[in-house]
Amino acid sequence: MTATSSAGHTRRDFLYIATGAVGAVGAAAVAVPLISQMNPDASTIAAGAPIEVDLSPVAEGQVIKVFWRGKPIFVNHRTKKQIEEAVNVNLASLPDPQPDSARVKEGHANFQVLIGICTHLGCIPIAHSGPYDGYFCPCHGSVYDTSGRIRSGPAPTNLALPPYQFVSDTKIRIG
Prior knowledge:
- This protein is of the alpha+beta class.
- It contains 3 helices and 10 strands.
- It has 2 domains: 8-39; 45-174, 3-layer Sandwich (Rieske Iron-sulfur Protein), CATH 2.102.10.10.
- Helix content is 23%, strand content 26%.
């Protein structure tokens, strides 16, 4: 009878370890592309990703248009006169009553951020137009004030507000 020692490594032990290592590398080589193909592509991420808008170059009284998720976003740097007119509106006279304070961020009433799509049939209104110096949709005649509230015309509701927040006094993040 011969006794074998378990203290020494045999050629068979090396083959087990080498086969296991090659198998693990092969499994990782298959798993990485399989998992990464499940992630959304760059255009999908960009289409829904939040955007940051620098407000410092926007002059008082100016409206800029940026795009988020394929929608036009109006950023209006309102004048004191525009803010006063928007605040002093009789809410009972509005088709979709909403105070101006509910349509701006607290402490930042000078910046109005709206989704620039008419709530009637999806046209894009023109800024600084109409009798209220707000937005006018020339397609069907909807008139909005500087707060984006419907004042007259066929549009049923106010211009929508995108989700946004102030990152600093001169920068907002939309989305």
